[in-house]
Design brief:
Elements: H1 3-13, E1 25-27, H2 37-45, E2 64-66, H3 72-79, E3 87-90, H4 96-112, E4 117-121, H5 131-143, E5 149-154, E6 164-169, H6 173-186
Parallel strand pairs: 3-4
Antiparallel strand pairs: 1-3, 2-5, 4-6, 5-6
């Protein structure tokens, strides 16, 4: 890096505040029990998330998706941050392929641990061609590939704003049975 490059970098970064303790995954619930390493490694080899050509989502277009049959009220509550977060995944400043693998692993673990609401931090760039916006565009595409994803949208400013998204996941079959049983007891 030449002297001019260092000055330009310092100038561009002068209003940036470093993140503290920036681990990739922050579990907000108790740590899950993990699959044996070999089984998780086998699952990752079968990662179906596409990695080819991507249509860039313009910065001014908020990330938002609602699966067929999901009520608008669910998306509205998600957008307002009304659901408690179970975990988050930080994809900031990582290569696209690393983001692809990390997101796939994270979603497998979320399914296994019956998580309902997660936060994906993808970052935001200053222009449409910025790396963060390319990752953001891939995240938009990838999340729609998971059958468990009911809806996703931009996060509230306290959780990263347009640089992150809330993801609402379907209840597991066991969680639906537990919920049905709990409500049946109430009506007796």
């Amino acid at each position: 890096m030449s002297f001019d490059d260092k000055d330009l970098f310092k100038e561009a970064m002068e209003d940036v505040t470093p993140l503290k303790n920036c681990a990739n995954i922050l579990w907000l619930k108790s740590p899950p029990t993990h699959y044996p390493r070999q089984k998780m490694a086998d699952l990752l080899l079968d990662n179906p998330l596409v990695s080819g050509f991507i249509n860039i989502v313009p910065l001014e277009t908020p990330l938002e998706y609602k699966a067929e049959g999901i009520q608008q009220g669910v998306l509205d509550k998600l957008r307002l941050g009304k659901y408690p977060l179970d975990a988050s995944l930080n994809l900031l400043r990582q290569p696209v392929e690393t983001c692809r693998q990390s997101l796939y692993r994270f979603m497998l673990e979320a399914r296994r641990d019956n998580l309902r609401n997660v936060l994906i931090i993808h970052g935001k760039g200053r222009d449409d061609e910025a790396h963060a916006n390319i990752v953001r565009s891939y995240v938009f595409r990838w999340l729609q590939q998971f059958a468990e994803v009911q809806a996703f949208c931009c996060a509230q400013p306290k959780h990263g704003g347009s640089g992150a998204c809330y993801v609402g996941l379907k209840k597991s079959h066991q969680a639906r049975l537990d919920n049905r049983e709990r409500h049946a007891k109430r009506s007796r």
